Amino acid sequence: MSSSEKPLVSKSASAASDAGGRGLPSVHAFQVDLRGIVDLLSHHLYSSPRVFVRELLQNAVDAITARRVVDPGAPAVVHVIADGAQVQVRDSGIGLTEDEVHRFLATIGRSSKRGVAGVVGVAGAAGVADGAVFGDGLGGFGDAESLLERGRGDFLGRFGIGLLACFVVADEISVVTKSAVDVAAPAVEWRGAADGHYDIRILAPEESPAQPGTTVTLKPSPGKEFWFQAPRVVELARDFGSLLPYETVLEDEAGYTYRITETPPVWDREYPSPGTRYEALAAYCQDILGFAPLDIIELNIPLLGIKGAAYILPTAATTSEQGGHRVHIKGMLLTDQARGLLPDWAFFVRCVIDTDALRPTASREALYEDDRLAAVREALGDRVRDWLAGLAATDPPRLNRLLAVHYLGVKALARFDDDLFALTLPWLPFETTAGRMPLTAFADQHRVVHLTAGDEEFQQVSQIAAAAGLGVVNGGYTYDADLVRKLPRALPGVTVVDLDPETIAAHLDTVDPAEELAAGPLLATARRVLDTLDCDAALRAYHPVTIPALLLDGREARHERARVDAEAEAAADGDDLWAGILGALRSVGPRARLVLNHRSPLIQGLIELEDAELAATGIEAVYGQALLLSKRPIRSGESALLNRAFLGLLAHAVGQRPAIQAEEEG
Ligand SMILES: Nc1ncnc2c1ncn2[C@@H]1O[C@H](COP(=O)(O)OP(=O)(O)OP(=O)(O)O)[C@@H](O)[C@H]1O
After folding, report:
1. DSSP state of 414
2. pTM here?
3. Hey, is 106 helix, strand or coil?
4. Which residue among 168, 310, 504, 642 is least enclosed by CB atoms within 10 Å?
5. What is the best residue among 89, 112, 158, 166 to mutate for testing ligand 1's pocket, by most ligand atoms within 8 Å of CB?
6. What pLDDT, on a 0 to 100 scale, did the predictor assign at position 158?
7. In terms of DSSP bridges, do strands 188-193 and 170-178 run parallel, antiparallel, or are they unpaired?
8. pLDDT tens-digit readout, 281-324
9. Which PANTHER family has this protein been placed in (predicted)?
10. Least confident interval from 83-92, 115-124, 223-232
């Protein structure tokens, strides 16, 4: 094999193949299956062929960066030609000499953009590095070490494999390059094939490009023509490269040119007013992320080299939809699906950022989960938190607007995040006996906060509790009970106690014995009517007077009722064994209680009523109304009662005997 026809990676022979004597280990270097490696790094590392455009742009940008380290005034233009038949990327960068082509372009895993530390491979670690495979990594663009050192932080590439991405769409990569450092060196043409071989040719002066720089040309492999159409290449180049630091233009087969870069980024431009700035950032969000943001948080964290914007989603999101963020690294789009960039609690935010702090994985499609990402996550979380705190202090209506949409998600996270809880407490809405309001305002009125176990209980007692001056919060909504229990930690001096309807009963006034005696017949009627429903009747005086009766139903009573229902169902299904088991569990625990309100004019009317049947119908109607008020599910016996009461009252209103009664009598 001639020196001008070498494999991209030379297979490393054993470094000490015959060194191993008896009892002594013999040391060997790993062998490399070149075709397999090229196939792996081109076809299996990336999620889509589209990345070939990114890798070409990236190399062009890095080459210009390198050249400008030594020659700050050097031209900085990337020219892409997509004429359907081929894609060509030309840069005015540092170029390569023949020697550098062999060392960098043609050595898999070696990059001119990285120093010694990052280069030693497996064999290198074993101390048997084959220079052809795992070189020392020194040198670089123009072989000027200091140049490399100075420019390294600015390069996008580092792994020495990116160019192989081109083999996803092409069988051959052709590179013509002329060094800007060694200006006397002739231009070189290199052609690398997907099977792992390359050839190299020194160009005659008349073939040589006039200016230093590099041109990479790809022709589609069979079936990959789609990726070479100009509109597609424009779209990909804009997606990846819109924020690149050097002017990039694309020319199609008809000679039309398209601007690829749109720099400076929207957040770095000058605007006549904050309003126009906000509008420009919002329009960018619509354009890039596809939604009109509810609000915008500008991001500028110099310490981490982060610039960009965090956009608040316009509609409610759930914590499980941890959406992706759009991350540029030194201008190049890394991914629009980055995870873990913000703390979990900030799930209602989508970011677009440009940074040089984060490390991409080798596929350059995701971020390393490392200390830097953790630092960025913390810094961005702090920024969002500070912004929320700032809104709370200066613009509560704006914060309210946000929480009106995202309160459920914020509550979900506030359960575990004390800071977020304290921060948003004055704004998060809860259902209370004083209406829907934040807990801080509620606790100003009630140092003892009663919490119901569920919505049912809250509905039963809210009006009466409010009239009795008790502060009750509905614990029936998702996350609310957990948050209310955290209240004493955020608001010292406030206590939270569980509320049971029995506690409410204790707050109802007893009735004067003489008046209770007068109400005796009605109470007896009520007990008779309600007995079949496992409900007692009692008389108390309370506010508001508009409530004629209150259905108090403790947890035990509800449990007992559910058991009775199941027993009836099992019996109806002919399931005697199950019905028997349930029957054996019958308890004599507390029953539900219908507490008639002696202060209610309606109950007064029923007490004075002489028509016992009408009074019974009235009791049924009052029970039905209390039942509806409690929002409890209605059992079959109860719906029959409601029906009977309604028809009974209607019949009475029109002066007839109720049909059911007439039927029973007839
Ligand atoms: N347009 C170019 N101009 C000058 N040198 C180039 C150009 N393209 C590639 N090279 C050289 O070839 C080497 C290998 O390029 P390749 O794209 O495979 O990897 P990389 O850019 O170094 O790292 P990464 O795998 O992270 O992209 C580069 O380090 C560089 O020295």
Report:
1. H
2. 0.71
3. coil
4. 642
5. 112
6. 76
7. antiparallel
8. 999 999 999 999 999 999 999 988 999 999 999 998 765 555 68
9. HEAT SHOCK PROTEIN 90 FAMILY MEMBER (PTHR11528)
10. 115-124
Q: Report the range of poorest mean pLDDT among 152-161, 198-207, 436-445.
A: 152-161
- Please report which confidence band the pLDDT of residue 634 belongs to, taking 50, 70 and 90 as the band edges: confident
Contact partners, residue 573, CB within 8 Å, separation at least 6? none
Q: Is 163 in the pocket of ligand 1 (CB under 6 A)?
A: yes
What number is the average pLDDT over the span 480-486?
96
**CA–CA dist 384, 399 (Å, integer):** 12
The letter for the amino acid at 565 is D
Strand 535-540 versus strand 592-597 pairing type: parallel
Alpha helix positions (H), 94-203: 98-100, 122-125, 145-151
> Between 220 and 35, whose confidence is greater?
220
* Residue 656: pLDDT over 60: yes
Cβ(91) – ligand 1 distance below 6 Å: yes
* Pocket lining: 113 vs ligand 1, CB cutoff 6 Å: yes
Compute, in angstroms, the gap from residue 81 CA to the centroid of ligand 1. Answer: 20
Query: Which helix (H) or strand (E) is 612 found in, with range?
Result: helix 612-630
Strands (E), 271-324: 295-301, 306-312
Q: How far apart are CA 587 and CA 290, in angstroms?
A: 61
| Range 600-617 average pLDDT | 94
Average pLDDT rounded to a whole number, residues 148-168: 73
Q: Is the CB of 161 under 6 A from ligand 1?
A: yes
What distance in angstroms lies between residue 111's CA and the mean position of ligand 1's atoms? 6
Distance CA 332, CA 315 (A): 29
Map residue 23 onto helix, strand or coil.
coil
Q: Which tokens is 398 given?
A: 């704006």
Asked if residues 316 and 341 have their Cβ atoms less than 8 Å apart, the reply is: no
Identity of residue 72: P
Question: Which of 1, 4, 207, 217 shows the shortest CA–CA distance to 102?
Answer: 4
CB 434 within 8 A of CB 442: yes
- Asked if residues 503 and 450 have their Cβ atoms less than 8 Å apart, the reply is yes
For the segment 545-555, what is each residue's pLDDT rounded down to a tens digit?
999 998 887 66
Angle (CA) 138-139-141 rounded to 5° is 145
CA 216 to ligand 1 center in whole angstroms:
11
Query: Ligand 1 mean position to 92 CA, how many Å?
Result: 14
State if residue 618 touches ligand 1 by the CB under 6 angstroms criterion.
Answer: no
Ligand 1 mean position, distance from CA 9 (Å):
15
Q: Which atom of ligand 1 is closest in space to residue 114's alpha carbon?
A: 22
pLDDT of residue 299: 97
Residue 88 Cβ < 6 Å to ligand 1: no
Which of 641, 577, 588, 651 shows the shortest CA–CA distance to 614?
651
CA distance 497 to 214: 75
- Average pLDDT for 491-518: 87
192 ligand 1 Cβ < 6 A: no
181 lines ligand 1 (CB under 6 A): no
